[in-house]
Amino acid sequence: MSALNLDGIIGYPVTPFTADGERVAVDRLAALVERLVADGCHAVAPLGSTGESAYLDEHEWCEAAETSIAAVAGRVPTVVGIAELTTRSAVRRAQFAERAGASAVMVLPLSYWRLDEREIVRHYTEVAGAVDIEVMIYNNPATAGVDLSPELMVSLVEKIENVTMVKESSGDLGRMHRLFQLTGGELPFYNGSNPLALAALMAGAAGWCTAAPCLIPGATLELHRAVRAGDFETAFKVFQQQLAVLQFIVRGGLPTTVKAGLALRGFDAGGPRRPLLPLDEERTAELSSLLAAVDAGRP
Amino acid sequence: MSALNLDGIIGYPVTPFTADGERVAVDRLAALVERLVADGCHAVAPLGSTGESAYLDEHEWCEAAETSIAAVAGRVPTVVGIAELTTRSAVRRAQFAERAGASAVMVLPLSYWRLDEREIVRHYTEVAGAVDIEVMIYNNPATAGVDLSPELMVSLVEKIENVTMVKESSGDLGRMHRLFQLTGGELPFYNGSNPLALAALMAGAAGWCTAAPCLIPGATLELHRAVRAGDFETAFKVFQQQLAVLQFIVRGGLPTTVKAGLALRGFDAGGPRRPLLPLDEERTAELSSLLAAVDAGRP
Amino acid sequence: MSALNLDGIIGYPVTPFTADGERVAVDRLAALVERLVADGCHAVAPLGSTGESAYLDEHEWCEAAETSIAAVAGRVPTVVGIAELTTRSAVRRAQFAERAGASAVMVLPLSYWRLDEREIVRHYTEVAGAVDIEVMIYNNPATAGVDLSPELMVSLVEKIENVTMVKESSGDLGRMHRLFQLTGGELPFYNGSNPLALAALMAGAAGWCTAAPCLIPGATLELHRAVRAGDFETAFKVFQQQLAVLQFIVRGGLPTTVKAGLALRGFDAGGPRRPLLPLDEERTAELSSLLAAVDAGRP
Amino acid sequence: MSALNLDGIIGYPVTPFTADGERVAVDRLAALVERLVADGCHAVAPLGSTGESAYLDEHEWCEAAETSIAAVAGRVPTVVGIAELTTRSAVRRAQFAERAGASAVMVLPLSYWRLDEREIVRHYTEVAGAVDIEVMIYNNPATAGVDLSPELMVSLVEKIENVTMVKESSGDLGRMHRLFQLTGGELPFYNGSNPLALAALMAGAAGWCTAAPCLIPGATLELHRAVRAGDFETAFKVFQQQLAVLQFIVRGGLPTTVKAGLALRGFDAGGPRRPLLPLDEERTAELSSLLAAVDAGRP
User: Do D111 and C52 meet the contact criterion of CB atoms below 8 Å apart?
Assistant: First the structure.
């Protein structure tokens, strides 16, 4: 069981880089995290897929983790993302995050050579065993190349004491129904697929893991508030209003599009790390008009 | 055009680790490379998928590259594998390999966030632009999460001067026909899909990139010799004799199975790096009998 | 625009066969349709995927259509399913259905050779052009082998006057959000993926196309009623109660599992048509206990 | 074991339709079959995927079978294709083909509802049990929606006496290696993937099932002759010469492209049956120049 009781909007900052793309712009990262907290996010999750976790070297990763945790300053929980190919590298990062004061780590098992269940179980056992903080399983087959079934994730939660939460980003709502069903609603699961934001909350998700608050915090938080208040009409309306932005940022890759959107919002976060390239002009213009529509409350 | 004129069996060593799995066992790596050369491989390719390139930190990777190049000692070409998520990391490794004396680098563009063609072109442009040695494009969608079409690969070869070769590991023979067709047979391409070994050579592949010589060098080299000699009957026979081994090592993951096979051959290369786990007993026994069949010349 | 204003639960009967499997058991079909109407379905859709439409010869299909329409007797709309490989065969069935008094036809474009957009547009143009009744587009890539994007379906609705509705069975909730978004909520779309029943209704689906009322009509209708009444708490509870049954009948193939369930309910509908085989004993026992749980109101 | 000893080029005629598309143009079909035999095909296979078998009603199918068998007149074996959703319909066609004098039937198990192994085994058992002639298993997942593994196909051959041959059209050469391996080369298998023509023959295929002889009989037969003669150099050259045509007719759908090609060759076979549409002008021009290149012996 999770003692964190994470519930609500878990905001994912990008990791801003310096102009030459060579270093993490720690001041910009701190400022962005501050914004997410100030805007009302119920938790902050640096170094997720949005945060280009897998693209950072170990020093940068530690710097970004430390900076984010310090900027949150305990006002809300901080969940630090780990996306590593090797177990030892994931263990080191988890231990660093714990020492730096993270509330939990979110662990994505990257695959190069296909992992079997035995290997996945061992990976989570070693990483979780190396820390005392809680561990969130992260399933994101499209980026990680490995797909964790609801059954496997529930068995990990049952076997390993501090594995207590699941983030589901496969985009298949049925997986969330299945997680609820397998655990009688007892396992807190979080939705990581932006276009399923409303449906997932209605399906029992404890929260929504999203980079959208970097760009449209009001709409994102209002969706959650409305659902929790049982005001489905408003929830549906604000979901429709932001859906085009959610679809856009997912389709174009979160670091690429959210960094472009932050620039449109007047916040310089640099570009994504190569080989990722900045959003081109045409699509930046499209994003600009989609953000304007959300600001104007247009569907 | 490639000045290397690579032709034949390109042997892929695993990267042996120390007993605790924490360091590269450089002496074992040197010994294995020595064996591959002594057994007659026409080139050696350390740090490929077999060599767990993506699982090594930068220091280990450099150590393995240097060790392998030194062990080859110029007797045959050395092609060093690079499988990195970021362009800058791939550039650094390519430059190190060049300084260390590599004949060429083989570059696999790993993906976390999906790469578009613009990003792939930029990645190869920057990596190839950073060195003077030749660059082999490596297409392996199953491990890398990105699939390079024959058309895209040919356009990279046309655009970037020192991109001169292609390694195709998608498992689709039609892709090799297409590479031949698009370039009138002028582009040297290499087959990385072991079960297609014979068909690829018959389809015009300049060579076969394979870890099989770690275990069955005689059979592997004989297949190539027979094809080049136009002795198709022998080629077919020796292909059938080794096919079960090729299927086995591919199905179980190359580092996992080849390290198990090396232990069966009396060569200690340690286990694969976690989360990869050593081959279990049952499958090790199966591999043992498959190797015995090849040794006995049984189909 | 649809003049039918279909809203709610669209019940899908199986097509019962005689004991030898050779003929449609028209009296059983009439009895089953009568039950669906009596139980409160808002419409009835014979000859859907559940009704083994594609497995019937033309004479049988016409008999089943006629029987169903007569049994409904105008009390609710009747939507007749057409799943044909050739346009001319689909046209003949649509014309027969119209003459027999169908309210609408639901058209699934089966593919053997892959269809391009031009061919799909032509198919719908010819079938819809041959009748005056409304046409529902049916997207079910898993059974039909062709996947219609939301954009294509909306363009068909815009181009062809009596194409007025869409049934989405891809299992991807995002497609329904997209249909809503592309048409400002004006296009009536119906969910054909049972495990998405609740989410789809919350996402604006005008109805739920389902064979579940053959087995658990009370739970199915109560779900729809609760959603329409804005009683989300009840909707969620009754959805959870029936979810295991919905998952089961989808996983095992609807004709196979629903016919087994009907037998458990005391209604003889025979087996599915070969090569489909009746549900085996073990899974029939599993279905029996799942149905008992729904009857008892257990989650 | 097969007593037919089919070896070589098995030519697949399209099924010509009358100008209105409503009937089989039996005289044209007879003329096309005559051409295939006269041009040297080692067997003829009417009513394959190329022959739009699945798009014909039962009367048309029987007419086409009878016409083809009569036109072959016993000069070479005739293998008649059956692609039906229901077992009973497949049984009736197999029995008709036997009575009409077919040498064998080739059976493709179409799927609408997914078939499990039990159902596939039953289908072949019933169809083969209804006739005394030999049955060829046909695996073509792209058109049929069901994929038969080499292991399953070999088990069917072992279980059912008159199931004696396999046609593999998955496009995966490894499947053919596997068929050879599982049966020690004893099971005659035939390649149905045109771009694998050369590789399959080198891999032990007993023959090549292809519509290409409708358009380029000389090149097709020469490829087979050269392989059988052990003249690999010629085989490779003539394969390269015809590869672009093979890729083109596969990519555009065989009935569509081969009918367009026959028109270019001066043979009127009508268009494919709707929803399939005739090849558009631009691609017809492309095909024309590809055929001209083959005629000129250009690569």
Answer: no
- How far off is chain D from C38, nearest CA to CA, in Å? 29
Please name which of C70, C83, C62 lies closest in space to residue C37, comparing C-alpha atoms. C70
The dihedrals phi and psi of C133, each to the nearest 5 degrees, come to -75, 165
Q: Which two tokens stand for residue D193?
A: 């993937």
- Listed residue (D9, D232, D234, D224) closest to B199, CA to CA: D232
Specify the pLDDT at position A39: 98
- Cα–Cα distance measured from residue C64 to residue C70, given in angstroms and rounded to the nearest whole number: 10
Residue B20 Cα to chain centre, angstroms: 26
Crossing angle, helix A232-251 and helix A217-228, to 10 degrees? 140
- What 3-state class would DSSP assign to B45? coil
Residue A27: burial class (beta carbons within 10 Å; 0-12, 13-18, 19+): exposed
All chains having 3 or more CB pairs closer than 8 angstroms to chain C: A, D
| Contact between B195 and D203 using a beta-carbon 8 Å cutoff | no
Residue C20: burial class (beta carbons within 10 Å; 0-12, 13-18, 19+): exposed
* Whole-structure pTM value: 0.97
Chain-centre distance of CA D152, in angstroms?
A: 21
- Cβ contacts of C273 on chain D, cutoff 8 Å: 86-88
Using an 8 Å CB-CB cutoff, list chain D residues near B230: 232
Residues A171-202 have pLDDT tens digits of: 999 999 999 999 999 999 999 999 999 999 99
Q: How far apart are CA C192 and CA C227, in angstroms?
A: 17
D-chain residues near B181 (CB < 8 A): 240, 243-244
Query: Given strand C163-168, what is the order of strands in its sheet?
Result: C43-44, C8-11, C207-210, C189-191, C163-168, C134-139, C104-109, C79-84
Short-list D99, D24, D107, D35, CA closest to D72: D35
Report the gap between the CA of B139 and the closest CA in chain A (Å). Answer: 13
The interface pTM score, or ipTM, of the predicted complex is 0.96
* CA angle at D272 for the pair D246 and D8, rounded to the nearest 5°: 40
At C220, the amino acid letter reads T
Residue B173: its chain D contacts at CB < 8 A? 173, 195-196, 199
Whether the pLDDT of residue C297 is over 80: the answer is yes
Could you give the CA distance from residue A29 to residue B113 in angstroms, rounded to a whole number? 21
Distance between CA C56 and CA C14 in Å, rounded? Answer: 12
pLDDT tier for residue A206 given thresholds of 50, 70 and 90? very high
Shortest distance, CA D196 to any CA of chain C (angstroms)? 20
B277 to A118: CB separation less than 8 angstroms, yes or no: yes
Alpha carbon distance B194, B198 (integer Å)? 9
d(Cα D244, Cα B182) in Å, to the nearest integer? 10
Q: Which residues pair with C168 in a beta bridge?
A: C139, C191
Give the tens place of pLDDT for each residue, A114-163: 999 999 999 999 999 999 999 999 999 999 999 999 999 999 999 999 99
Are D125 and C274 in contact by the 8 Å Cβ rule? The answer is no
State the CB neighbour count (10 A cutoff) for residue C106.
Answer: 28
* Chains C and B: 3 or more CB pairs within 8 Å of each other: no
